[in-house]
């Protein structure tokens, strides 16, 4: 840690924001996206992206924390977050037939998992380019949508979307030589959908993205005679059919009780590392308005007490979560970690407030078909 700089807020993946206006990246047929929505096709096929992530690469993937000098010190809560139109919601899927039962424990949602990707323009064989985030399956017409943070799909250093992007719901790594699990399959990106204000202006009030994924592959890894990992792949169908999808809600109250889920693994500013990233973790709290953070163009974030560190980025905030069905309504995503009491320990997380702009990006993804 640089002792001259107190790091009070940091994007949970630690991706450094670069100032300046950049051109939006679009892919073929991206013209179908409405104004303010940037859609881009993934660079790889589903087979290429899935096969890229060997057990060794998943194990060695890291958060891009870096040595950041961030000067945001919090302050008085901003009153900018709030509805910009009528509220609305889309119900979750996957709760069909679920028994209504009470439980004292929190049943972790099958929809939440880890996101893996490589840095654009980097040598994909270089371990320094292997990165991760968190994400969640969310309801969509074609059951193919993953919600995450925009900085988990788009690299503001190179102004490009990430490469070799995959999502593994209910990811679990048992910390053996290799027993990482993909119990419901691996789902590779087909389309990235983000807001123009994040892509062009790097405005973290729009730090959310919705990724359309291909149908999944179940992957088992075996070593060949030369000791190299070899994937044995079979198709498993659509993401939403296999794990369900959280509902989606926008223009809700600023103050709500929510669960946040994710795979934190990074360090606190004081160097402590309480999480491994190998298993899913959760926080629970009541949201409220957060201070402005000019370094990230933040005016409209909401947050609550939670000690998540890097790696949790993109994990869902779920409103009205039911442990019996493991479903609720996506109302935010892990975006920025805060040290509000200035003791070099993150104590709050924040998310962009989900308003009509968020719904516009979500709706684009929710109605986009993939193979």
Automatic annotation (TrEMBL):
UniProt keyword tRNA processing present: no
Biased composition (Polar residues): 38-53
Record bears the keyword Signal: yes
Ranges for region Disordered: 31-104
Signal peptide region: 1-30
Keywords: Signal
InterPro entries, alphabetized: Glutamyl_endopeptidase (IPR050966), Peptidase_S1_PA (IPR009003), Peptidase_S1_PA_chymotrypsin (IPR043504)
Domain of life: Bacteria
Name under which the protein is recorded: Peptidase
Organism field: Streptosporangium oxazolinicum
Phylogenetic placement of the source organism: Bacteria, Bacillati, Actinomycetota, Actinomycetes, Streptosporangiales
